[in-house]
Amino acid sequence: MSRISRRALLLALTTSVAAVALALLAPRADAVSTRSFVLDDAASLAAGELDGTAVHSDGSVTIGVGTRRIGLDEAAVAWSFTRGSGSVFVGTGNDGKIYRLSGDDVSEFAETGQLVVTSLAFGSGRLYAGTLPEARIYQVDGQGQTQELARPDGAEHVWDLAYHDGTLFAATGPEGKVFAIDASGQAEVYWDSDAAHVMSLAVGDDGSLYAGTSDDAVVVRLRGPGRAEVVHDFPGNEVTALTIRDGVLAVAANEFPSPPAATTGTKNKATSGARPRPGKGRLYRVDGDGRTERILSRDDGHFTSVQIAEDGTIYAGAGKDGRVHRVSPTGDSATWIDVDERQVLAIDMVGDDPLLLTGDGAAIYRIVAQEAQAATWTSKVLDASFVARFGELTWRGRGAIQFQTRSGNSEEPNETWSEWSAAMAQPGPIRSASARYLQIRARFPQDPDARLLAVVAHYLPQNQRARISSVGRAQAKKATKSKNVTRSVDDPPVPSAKLKLEWAVTNPDGDRMRYRLRYRAESQTRWRTVLHEDEELTSTNYQWDTGGLPDGYYVVEVEASDELSNPGAETLRNRRASEPLLIDNHPPRIESIRAEGDHVVGRVVDGLGPIAKLEVAIDGREFRPFFPADDLLDTRDERFDLDLSGLDPGEYIVAVRAYDAGGNSVTAEVTLTR
Hints:
By secondary structure, the protein is an all-beta fold. It has four domains: 79-368, YVTN repeat-like/Quinoprotein amine dehydrogenase (Methylamine Dehydrogenase, Chain H); 376-461, no CATH class; 467-477 and 489-583, Immunoglobulins (Immunoglobulin-like, Sandwich), CATH 2.60.40.10; 589-673, Immunoglobulin-like, CATH 2.60.40.650. 2% of the residues lie in helices and 50% in strands. It is built from two helices and 53 strands. The strands form eleven sheets. Strands 1, 2, 3, 4, 26, 27, 28, 29, 33, 34, 35, 36, 37 and 38 form a 14-stranded antiparallel sheet that branches. The radius of gyration is 40 Å and the shape is elongated.
């Protein structure tokens, strides 16, 4: 099976519904004392929960329509429905049953014995049902008696049915064919596409059949068997749904990620496979002259169903967050309906009895007039990042809208949260307890002109202490493959009195930091300041001039303070000291250097040591390394004895150069005569 919205649901019919992650409104990045949650556009307002309210593309919330839920407790998924003979028929999974809705009463009407009833159509007084995974098509009489009508050759899935003028059309996969089926059950290939699946069908007023495909998102017009012309090749990889009215097409062309591997089971076993990520939804309007316009786009979820009302308004069901979107003929859009279930799989918003079906938690929703005082908008959970004290709640809008708040320290509201506060009719202080998370609820009066435009909640997050995790020389932080630190006599450091210090800081709330430095000799307890108080250091490194210090080991301590972002009483500090750092700015001494026969002897002495490198040059030529008398450079006092008996007879100037561990060097010369 390839990627699709409905097929994606099929892959997870026997799995639990994944939790929908809430995208939390991030506070401003700059560290200031007071911050604000600002919800003033369509995206931030629609991220909440809508109960009888609608969020419009102009960034406003108004009263919408109400819903009344009719559960299908025996079914896992309410997949498809159609109307006929004064009733609504609903196709379901995982047991392939058909239910009948009369008024608000739901009863089991027929059984197919298949996994899912993916599509229903009504014509000539009979109900037709398409199923999978065996692509069987059934006809059902008025008493619910089911008879297999056809099993299209080569098909495994029936994705959609359409009935017109005595012929039943079936969109199938995985060979991408449309079949025409007559009253006797004879199934003939009406169109053989290049696509893997034909996903959706619609019949125009002139009898033309329209078909949408996957995996290439093409809509074609079929004027007869094999007579196909492309209406449009859409971006994405699936035309999940399409409908036509008065020559205008509405098309849901979605983009889905590559699916996981899946295997089709028997009629009594669900198709296995992991739930794929939600797709990206694109809704298009195609006029009779072929003009194609994208009228709605969603990157956080795909569209599952579309419908056009008599006035040209287009409705689209969404496969994420259980919503129905509405686009007016002028192009204004709204999140129109929000139900508890995650997927809206089918809609019929036209006529006197509008309905919708949900997938994960099978239910029928009847769309009704909104009851007085029942319309509410609830914000998504707002994250202050840390425990915060809440301040003023303000809003813009019109009408007698009332607000409530609640708070807690868990990401999902539960019994540990505070109760909803008393209603606020005017802006004022938030009465909910200090906590990390906040949620806001608005109750609308029964006033069609009531409109919410923006909500702002101020808060003061608890200041967080920055912590210094390490202090040391900058070069000491280079990564090594071994935990052992080695020093090579061939690569002494470049001597410098400028010691570059660096430190690592964890700054949870992003406050502006000020750093103070002080030092002490390793053997002492008295600390001395490196910087004057009027020197403001904000970077995490400092070049310290140690030229005036005696050689030795020193400890450096760094203090981190968030005083630049917080008043004095709220300022937090943290200190960390380095391990002892060697400061060695003075070269060693070469003592008692002299010529003794064919040898040059002497000693090198340093205040700290160890001696790191010895070199010799003859008559100004290149310096070459040599070892001390004991072959080890491991102390501050090293004797050397250079055997130069290999030189030809004559007089030579012998230069000896010595380095200490700090890279400081000294050179001495002696004349050798052989």
